[in-house]
Amino acid sequence: MQYFLDVEFQFLILCLSTLLTLINPLGIAPIFIVMTERFSKKEKVKIAKKGIATGTITLLVFTLLGSIIFNLYGITLEAFQIMGGILFFRSGLRMLEAQVGRSRSTDTEIEEFKESDEIAISPIGIPLIAGPGAITGVMLLSGKAPSTISLGTLLLAVLITMIIFYFILRAGDQVGKKIGVTGMRVIQRIMGLILMVIAVQFVINGVETIITRL
């Protein structure tokens, strides 16, 4: 019994360390801050909750059914990487060019507040939180599970990771207030540039893998 508990605990630590590294909540938090800075505090919390929920459900599904889904629809991880890169690039370009302030007045700008649900699901939920790296991670960990019960340990690790992630995103709102509008504009453009570079790298990785297999 003690041996079983030790094995499961070690697997839990492996899963947590792997997921936290792959998902990188501290790295995503600044991107989340600048992508949601035009929304109210209440809307930011809503976006964070829905984004985390979307990412959690996605990772849980791929933990249990990842290989089946990819094989059933003939989807490759490279295709997912390229798709994620396109979404990242679009979001990064918007962040790089954005010049709107916290105060909005036109009808078009007001309509953008209704996009919070869409932003929460994509690109925040997918692929920012549940990206190719995280999905690959849970699929590999699922394959390495010491036993059937260990699959439950992996699912628990996903939930713990997302809870930690949620509180990090919640704390990000306070950071945004301290930085101020000017600071947010600078960070917004830097993060937009970084996000675009990540997007290009995603596409490069996907294309390189495809070419290597030819």
What does this structure look like?
The protein is an all-alpha fold. It has one domain (2-23, 31-213). It is 87% helix and 0% strand. The protein contains 8 helices and no strands. The protein has helices spanning 2-23, 25-35, 41-73, 77-97, 107-112, 116-129, 132-144, 148-213. Helix 1 runs parallel beside helix 8, helix 4 (77-97) crosses helix 6 (116-129) and helix 4 (77-97) packs across helix 8. The chain is globular, with a radius of gyration of 19 Å. Residues 99-110 have low confidence and may be disordered.
Main traits of this protein?
8 helices, 0% strand, 214 residues, mainly alpha
Helix content range of the residues, please? over 70%
Number of separate domains: 1
Count helical runs. Answer: 8
Question: Gap between N and C termini, in Å?
Answer: 49 Å
What is the 3D shape?
globular
Elements, N to C (H/E)? HHHHHHHH
The whole-number mean of residue pLDDT values reads: 81
Low-confidence stretches: 99-110
Proportion of β residues? Answer: under 5%
Main structural class: mainly alpha
How would a textbook summarize the main sheet?
Answer: none
Count of β-strands: 0
Q: Give Rg in angstroms.
A: 19 Å
